[in-house]
Amino acid sequence: MVPKRGYFQPIDSVGLMSWLWWGVFLMLSFIIWNEIGFKLDVLPIVSILVVLVVGLLMIIRRRVYLAGSQIFLGRILMAEYEKVKLEDIDNWQIKGRILSFERADRKRKYLLSRNVAEQIKGYKDTNGR
User: Fold this and answer.
1) Taking the mean position of all CA atoms in its chain, how far away is CA 14?
2) Cα(68)–Cα(99) distance, integer angstroms
3) Quick one: average pLDDT of 47-70?
4) pLDDT at res. 53
5) What pTM, to 2 d.p., does this model score?
6) C-alpha span between 111 and 102 (Å, rounded)
């Protein structure tokens, strides 16, 4: 079986706070650009480009691999992957593209890319969980 690859984003308070801070820095870049008078100066353009690159890195650095009932949640630039077996977790559910489960006394919710979410739904349908 060829593992499916995709992206994930945590939907807990830490994940939401990181996106809120990203939005704050993006708005700050636009405010700096506005204060300068919408001129094409180097500082506002560089700050906007840096914030957009950071946002792109926030998305692509979180990779998910799915092989059968095993989900590998990894972060690029870090060598470790968190391995989650759907067989071992009792109360997991997938609604749309959101996978939620409880592990190590912590409720986790992840927004998955479409292809990974569809394969998990297929696993759920074939195994009756």
Assistant:
1) 12
2) 16
3) 87
4) 93
5) 0.75
6) 15
Cβ 43 vs Cβ 33: under 8 Å:
no
Residue type for 28, please?
Answer: L
Of residues 1 and 67, the one with the higher pLDDT is 67
CB 102 within 8 A of CB 111: no
- For residue 128, what pLDDT is reported? 60
92 close to 85: Cβ distance less than 8 angstroms: no
Contact status, residue 92 vs residue 108, Cβ threshold 8 Å? no
64 neighbors 6 (Cβ within 8 angstroms): yes
Residues 16-37: tens digit of each pLDDT: 898 999 999 999 988 888 887 7
3-class SS string, 100-122 = EEEECCEEEEEEECHHHHHHHHH
E-assigned strand segments in the chain: 4-10, 62-67, 70-75, 81-85, 93-95, 98-103, 106-112
Cβ atoms of 91 and 99 closer than 8 Å: no
